[in-house]
Amino acid sequence: MRPLTRWFAFALAVLALATAARADERPPNILFVFADDLGYADVGCYGHPYARTPAIDKLASEGTRFTQAYVTGTTCCPSRTGFMTGLFPARFEKYPAPYGFGDRVTVTDLLKKRGYRTGHFGKWHIGPETDGVYGIDEYASGENTKKSPRGRDAGLFDAAIDFVERNRDRPFYVNVWGHVTHFPVNPHEDLAAKFKDVTVDRSDFSKTMQHKFDECVKIGGDLDASMRNYLGDVYSLDRAVGRLLKRIDELGLRENTIVVFSSDHGPAPVILGKQGARKYSNNMLGYAGVFRGGKHEQYEGGVRVPFVVRWPGHVKAGRVDESSVISGIDWMPTLCAIAGVEQLPETYDGEDVLAAWFGGKHTRTKPLFWRASAPGAAPAMRSGQWKLHLPRRGEPELYDLSVDPSESRNVADANPEVTARLRGQLETWVATLPKRYDKGEERGDRE
User: Fold this and answer.
1) pLDDT tens across 208-232, in order?
2) pLDDT given for residue 130 in this prediction
3) DSSP string covering 392-413, please?
4) What is the C-alpha to C-alpha distance for residues 181 and 373, in angstroms, rounded to an integer?
5) For 230, which of 53, 58, 285, 402 could close a Cys bridge (C-beta 3.0–4.6 Å)?
6) Domains, the chain, with CATH or none
């Protein structure tokens, strides 16, 4: 055997041994803290001028904070569907909130087969709640703490901490899906009192926030009191996150636990259409920063969310990734790459973005698409720097996010070739979707 050939064979053998060793190692624990209706800029590290979120801010300082992270839907169920299945939610003919995911494989199915103990605590909204569904070993909504000064999510974090304590000696995956800051925002008075000195200065906020202030006043709200209530709700979430992270450290699990913090979509409006008084709340002052829109909208404020990853020794501390475009549909392939899951579903829409987690840059090869589960709904997409909306009425809207993240200048007419190319891709994708949808007996505002 020639020397070079021998060296190459030796290198392959070493690589094979190293791979086998990694496969035998205990994979990392995974904690996924998912807020509800929390705006992109509702925490301190993402730019809120008044929020007090020391635990989440510390988490970001100990890990990587992404500024171009997206969800797959503008309401709760579609967003959760993307994370759980790696599929754009508009693919599902039967709406997952009442029906579930059918025969679609979920990330928890795959991790359970890899040897993970799986738990889900808090909000569900992804189908029938049956034992063992989606490979989830334990599910609990948590003790109701709505009227407690600990905050409305305290009980579900208690349940998650208990699960971690009982499964510390084996790899675990935990969804911690809270209710803060979903309607209604009515925190205990002790939480709002933490912000008694806050006085709203409108100039502290972007132009995109001013209409919410106007609506708050329009329905008789007091801006200062409403802001204090909203901040108190967010603060309660931060305290719960802090308790969970503290317990992880006490159990000696910090180094081998991936912690991810995000939100399911943008902040809810103050006034939601004409659906009755239940949908009017002057306390709904969630903030999307410079981004236009919020919940129920496919503009950036509705689909761009905070996304923080911490994994000591693997994910760089104190890093801000401003270039990698990542999405909830990437959750499944990325975690499978980390955990050593080799057999993924035949069909999924996401990409493995582990390079971005580990400090590199991820350049997407697939566009991101959005559309509600209705045949006539208006679709949107992002490809590279471009964001295209095809309204049900009116002309296409094209925005160059590299210079106009607030989507304030429609440049479709100035870029006809880009508009035509993206429109073709978007319409081709829409043509693959179901021609009808079954929403079942789902109640509420179809979140």
Assistant:
1) 999 999 999 999 999 999 999 999 9
2) 87
3) SSS--EEEETTT-TT-----TT
4) 24
5) 285
6) 28-366 (3.40.720.10)
